[in-house]
Amino acid sequence: MRTALNLNKSVIEPPTAAPVQRLYTASQPHHTAPVKAIAILLLSTGLTLGAASRSLAADPDPDDLPDIGSPAQAMLSTQEEYQIGRMIVRGLRDQDQILEDPEVSEYIRSLGTRLSSQANDGSQRFNFFVVKDNSINAFALPGGFIGVNSGLLLDTKNESELAGVIAHEVAHVTQRHIARSIAEQSKSSLVSTAAMLAAILVGVAGGGDAAMAGVAAAQSLAIQQKISFTRANETEADRVGIGILARSGFDPQGMPAFFETMSRHAGSSEINIPEMLRTHPVTSTRIAETKERAAQMNVKPEPESMSYALTRERLRVLATPAGEDPREYYAAIIGNEPDATPAQVYGRGLALMMAGQAAKAVPIFQRLRDADPTVVQYHTALGQAQLLAGKGENSLTTLQRAGELFPRNIAVTVRYAEALMQLGNSKRAHEILLDLFNVVPPTPEQAKLTAQAANAAGDVADSYFYMSEYHLMSGDLLLAINQLQLALAVPKISDVQRARFEARLEEVQQAMPKRAQRRQVQGDSGNRRRAS
Fold first, then answer.
1. 477 near 516, Cβ under 8 Å?
2. Which residues of 73-87 are buried (b: 16+ CB within 10 A; e: fewer)?
3. Is 8 left (phi over 0), alpha (psi -120 to 50) or beta?
4. In the CATH scheme, what is the code of domain 340-531?
5. pLDDT tens digits for 345-381?
6. pTM above the 0.85 mark?
7. Residue 145: in which H helix or E strand, if any?
8. Where in the chain is the domain with CATH 1.25.40.10?
9. CA dihedral angle for residue 304, residue 305, residue 309, residue 314, rounded to 10 degrees
């Protein structure tokens, strides 16, 4: 009998049937403690890397990565930007700040791709994700990583407003505003770079966190000089962003319309000012200029996607603070179902699922799916509700049919695999996830789920391999190497597996800086000596 083995010091188990869950375990105000913890983590990383860069300066090695703080590298290369951005995202993921929900993630990636494809920069990579934060904010990191807070999506009134904010952040990336601001600070080091990126996420953080206060006292002026995009940066991002918005088929008036919403927020008390206003100040001149640009564009906007409204309701339910019941919200706005919008009915079904009333949600999702079978979210929600209601075979039938209608759709494949694993057919789950993995560029959460399915199916070596891919996507090369070495150590692997694992291991090792390679070799030698 095969048993699940330890992957990266934690047993990988099949996921439980709880696909709908709260984002927050407690209701928290803006500038939450978890986000501060990320900042401290990043600042600590920056200090560590800063010390390492000073060590490199004392002992130069041409094969090592360049010291970002040196005058010769004052302007970051695109690869260095990507590495820094990936480091920040890994910190967010490690702190459980990134929402790993297939339906929400698929929508925000689709919207981001639609916009970034019109950015006239085919060489720039982009990664879009949703952050578990109820504050109104979005941010661009070096390397094309763009985060959108759940609170921002809920505060927009239409898809063009949301697209306008994201287009603005895409423009910050394509115009390389962060790298340019660092280049203007000739004495900038990797320490202050990491501090700057942490501050972008935190903004003006209130509260009594002693560690954060100490950092702020020591570096507040330097950080503020670096994170505050100049007026020229903001004007350029507005100009470029509104062009991206129009070319993507959205209403260009969506950008100034949301600026006006932000401006109204600015009239409230300081504690309630949205995070976005702190990093992207809105003035009447800026609103007027974007309105004028939008009016000059002869654009016939495309119809708003159903996915926008459904994603808002899904986030509304997922983000319900502990102690609150999302059913109360829908009871207040829905007198009876025929008067409600399809998105509101969808949200009500999700609220019932969260409250443990999946059996009541099943007929709601069945009516929605039968009325419009072209909407992916109706199929996946119905499959989830049936699984939670104890109707496993019905769930599998629903999701299998959805897979036939929407082949290799990420949300459908993930939900089908989750149901298969929950019902004991991990081998089939592994097969369909592997098919998706090999055809559609996977996300880190997909790689991890594929590893879970492989492990549950008894394919231990492959589970280690997929976990190595997960760590590679997160930028942790050492852990990726560790997982590949574990895969190679599994008894009786096939010749094909061995060749694949060895080839990937060699690729990863060659991608590591020479200094890190030497440390790994020294570590391996020490382990062998201890073993002997």
1. yes
2. bbebeeebbbbbbbb
3. left
4. 1.25.40.10
5. 999 999 999 999 999 999 999 999 999 999 999 999 9
6. no
7. strand 145-149
8. 340-531
9. -160
